[in-house]
Amino acid sequence: MIAYTSRYFNVIAPVLRHLIQKRYGYDLAKRAYDGARPIYRNLLAAAPPIGADNPMAKNLYEACVFFALYRAAYGELTPDMLRTVVDDLFSLRIMGVVGMAINLNRPKDVAKFNQRLHANVRWVEEHPETEPYTWDFNFGDTAGDTQVSYHFTRCPINDLCREQGLMDVLPVMCNIDHITARLVHGRLVRHHTLATDGPICDYLIRGDQSL
Fold first, then answer.
1. In a domain, 1, yes or no
2. For residue 145, which of 211, 206, 208 has the smallest C-alpha distance?
3. Is 195 part of a structural domain of the chain?
4. By three-state DSSP, how is residue 205 classified?
5. CA angle 145–180–129, rounded 5-degree value
6. 32 near 21, Cβ under 8 Å?
7. Per-residue pLDDT averaged across 19-45, rounded?
8. Which of 16, 19, 33, 34 has the fewest CB atoms within 10 Å around its CB?
9. Residue 151 in 3-state DSSP?
10. CA distance 44 to 108
11. For the residues 83-105, what does the mean pLDDT come to?
């Protein structure tokens, strides 16, 4: 269980409703949105206890919003349809603000990115009760701070989806990693995901201007 908060739902779900309606009509959007909140609450109640103040917790909270609307549509919103909605979401103009703040072609921004990841590890060290459940960062070669390299062998979103029967839609969430890398002017190279029964989720992110 992870502590309930409506904050993420209140911000993300109305935007998803608008995007679903724009693509697929009012009835489907209303059905998905109206039924999603109790499902969202139940998913959080079933989620691994990673700690609500875990700096990575927002990833789980946000993913559960997508899962809740998907499940509330009772099969009428397919994974491919949700993938299209996700693409629409990250194409919104406001998402460009992220790229103004971080540019992975700048070594100083890569250094900040790596520092933030290491801060996640320190948080877990300070909260050892969450260690069996939360993401485990394993860092690779950062090539003189010109790239970001790490992998997970444990992902609470993956664990939740396996328990809750949401594996069909989990790859849509995994693809967001590629989208967010592009938002910060990067390219994600990945060979495995836990969602597709790989041994790890691997991340090698370089600036999009690098060779």
1. no
2. 206
3. yes
4. strand
5. 75
6. no
7. 97
8. 34
9. strand
10. 36
11. 85
